[in-house]
Structures are given as C-alpha cells and as structure tokens.
Amino acid sequence: MISDPLLHPPSSRAEHATRRAPPPHRRRRIVLALGTCGAAALVAVGVTFATGDGRGDATGTNAPAVTPVAPTTTIAPTTIAPPTTLPSIDAPGTLWWLVNRDRPLPDGYVPPDLLTPNVPLKPDTGATQVTAATGAAFEAMLADAAVAGFQLQLNSGYRSYEQQQMLYDRFVQDYGAEVAAQRVAPPGTSEHQTGLAADVGLVGLPDDQLFGDTDASVWVTTNAHRFGFVIRYPPDKAHITGYDNEPWHLRYVGVELATELQAGGLTMEEHFGLVPAAAEATTATTG
Fold this sequence. Notes:
Strand order of the largest sheet: 3-4-6-5
Number of strands: 6
Helix content: 25-40%
CATH architecture of the largest domain: 2-Layer Sandwich
Distance between the termini: 135 Å
C-alpha cells in the first residue's frame, strides 16, 4: 500500500518535510561544493577567452596559452680588486727584503720553500738549498752560461743561524775575534739565511785561482741581472754595504729591480736610501 502524503494531515506533512531536510552542516557542505564548482566554471570561462576558444578576434583553440614573464632585474657585477702584493724591504721573504749588519733577520727565520736546484754543486758545500724562485732563476742563468761556454755551479746557498755561528766561531778560533769581525757576517745578519743569496762558482776552478779573475765572472757580472740577480757586494761599494768585493755573491731580487740596479750601478742600500751615515768609516768585511 502506497502512502499518499496528501492524505496525511498538515502537521504530519510538515513533520515529514522536517525529517527529510538536510541538517545544517550538510547544507554548508553543499554551499561550499556549489561555490567550488562556480569558481571552476569561472576559471574555465577565463581560459576560454584567454585561448580564444570562442567568438571575437581570437586565433582559435589551437593557440598556445600565454605564460606571463617576470620582469628581469639587472644585477651589476661585483668588482673584485686584484691583490696588490708589492715587494718590501722590511717583509721577510719578499724579493726586495734588505738584510745587512744593521738589519738582521728575525730570530729563527727559515724560508718556507727551500729546495736544491738542478745545477752542479760544489763537492764540499754544506749549503745546497735556496728558495724556489731563486733556484728556478739560478737554473736558467746557468743554462744560458753553458751556451756561452761557462759551466757554473752553486758553491753555497741557504745557511741557517747555526751554520753561521759555526762559521763565525771557526774564524775566531783560526784568526782571532778581531779578524772574524772584519771578515765574517755576525750570525743572524747574513743574506744566506734568507735563501735568496747564492754563491756562484766555476766547475773545476783550482783552489789557488779566484773566481773574480775568470772570464766566467765577467759573464756573470754582465748577464746576472737578466735573470733577476745582482752582484750584491761590488768592489767600490764596500763602505756602503759593509762587505768586501765578492763577485761570486749573488742576490735574487727579480728582473725589474736587478735591471734598475745594473743600469744605475747602485747597491740596494743606495737605491732604497739606506746608506749608513758613517759609510766611509765602515770597515769592510766579507759576507
């Protein structure tokens, strides 16, 4: 038997309608669902107009969607200044470091990059090392000298403080303190400790012959600057350097400074304005 709602009294119909009406929380869900569907519909319409799928001046449904491009921001490149490491007469280890009896080395100084260059060595030398840059320049110079017919060798390079002390003590024992003070650099003041000094010699030179009397010495004096070396203690500057004539004692200062000193006939002391006030009265000694 089918129940006819019209047969129910009004109160029964209202009650029946109340029972069938969705609860409030379900109504909210329905409203949200409708809202979502509406938003989707609006998006679809917007896409239709954007792609031209409709009437008007659009190009048709096959036209690609337009992707918005963010504005380009131009960033100025960062300018990095190159390092400015200039040689210094005061900085240990630099090419122009000026060391003499008035400008001693720091206590315990040892060059960080000592090596033995690939050159002939004096058989009895106890100092075969120099700094890496000095060694490379020394190798190049000896190779060029060989082309000129001179076979040069390294007689002495780096000397530690202890080696200087032993040398000084030996001179005191053999010749007395006064002679030692005149002929040997006091420990801690020798350029040999910098690793930038190299005593050059001639392979097979007899003991009774001086290097300064050979044609090889003339070649070194004329060409050493091309490789960054200077004759540190020339014969006419003993009153300035404090050391006697040593045509074998080379000091590596780089090609730039070596060329300037060679052209001007100057010592490092003269070039840097450090000539001792009492230079004329200074007793020359050997380095």
